[in-house]
UniProtKB/TrEMBL annotation:
It comes from Bisbaumannia pacifica. Gene3D superfamilies: 6.10.250.1890, Alpha-glycerophosphate oxidase, cap domain, D-Amino Acid Oxidase, subunit A, domain 2, FAD/NAD(P)-binding domain. This is Glycerol-3-phosphate dehydrogenase. Keywords: FAD, Flavoprotein, Oxidoreductase. It comes from the Bacteria.
Amino acid sequence: MASQTPLLDLFVIGGGINGTGIANDAAGRGLRVALCEQRDLASATSSASSKLIHGGLRYLEHREFRLVREALKEREVLLRKAPHIIWPLRFILPHRPHLRPAWMIRTGLFLYDHLGKRDSLPGSRRLSFTGQGPLKPEITQGFEYSDCWVDDARLVVLNALQARQQGAEILVGTRCVAARQVDGIWEIELEEVDSGRRQIRRARALVNAAGPWVEEFIRERTQRRSRYGIRMIQGSHLIVPRIHDDERAYILQNQDGRIVFVLPYQQDFSLIGTTDRRYRGDPAEVAISDEETGYILAVVNEHFRTQLSRDDVVSSYSGVRPLCDDESTDPSAMTRDYTLDLNLQGAPLLSVFGGKITTYRKLAESALAQLAPHLPAMGQTWTAEAPLPGGDIGSQAAFVARLLADYPFLGETRARRFAASYGSLCLEFLHDCQAESDLGEDFGAGLSRREVDYLVEREWARGADDILWRRTKLGLRLSEAERQRLERYLAERLTPGTRLGEAAS
């Protein structure tokens, strides 16, 4: 069976941002690429972030200047590549003199403004508060600076889409059982999770972008030894009803030196996080603790007039950041930089440790640079200038106006959601719609059968969570009855041929 399988240049393990970013870059360089993900794309760490494209202001305190510089440059690159899912966001940093002196913050913001090229984002400035805003009246001074928002799971899906457009095979719901070397070639044994069907793929090089499972994959699937360990750091977030009307975000300092973001989320909510705590256990089972909930609420209540309790929590999520273990005793001080380990004890195996969503594209370029001597057919870098699928819209505002002109029955709320989730990709399922009825059944909150069918056929969606929490962010809007109806429809619609592996092309 293996000898009849076409030889790939590269096989990628893991459908998070690093895996899809590497697969996309490699496919665009003319390499023959396949990727497998045991669950859904972005189902682990990559959808559990704070949803920011940022340089990492707090990393300056730990002297991670190279990481901050690279991340700041990437803000501008990604803004151009994906204006539909990434947009500028201003941040307010309330000043609390007993935590960090003003001169330290001003110095940090000066570096933040100038370490990386800033083409479109405004610089930082000092603020005075009148006591009439959402913050407590005793907070009278602060600072404001720029970073960006990102729909993290959509960023992963768009990289997978672009990879497939360039010939890559994306196998979702498929796990790697074993990876063996045979005559200098990797033989990768795959299993479809739902059906149990197995197949063999062959590749010249293997990329291990398994995130929290990166070390385990090396040890248990390849029988090689890892040069690096990981330390799993849990980060948790709360979603509460909107606690302020301002479209800006807040970055709050805490007594322990950590920071908490308060971000405007889905018009009616505030997204608050994150935490930093050591995690031991199965990364697939991570969940917010009562201690973390109390910690986040306490930080917010120290700053805002609106006081929150556990009863205000609408939803929460947790993720595990698989950081390269630098033996730091403080989880907040552990490096967020990435480490790439190229193992040449036979066929090339490149493993990815750590990393940030903001620098995924540079990580992919670095990974392919290390593999280039072993893949002579590899072409040149290309991702810096190429828009991601759906990103050819000019601006969100212009595209919303276009949608409302061409499809007035959508209404402004749905047009804005389409522009901010799909960009021009939504035209694929709107192309012949003349009226609301052409969209088919409404599952709730404007989620139509047309949209669901598109997500199943084109974007690898298989279950309600794939659609509601990762691809549309409508999980906060649908009732339990509406969710169950969606689950029944998906069960009726999905056939064994489309439940696993490659979505329709």
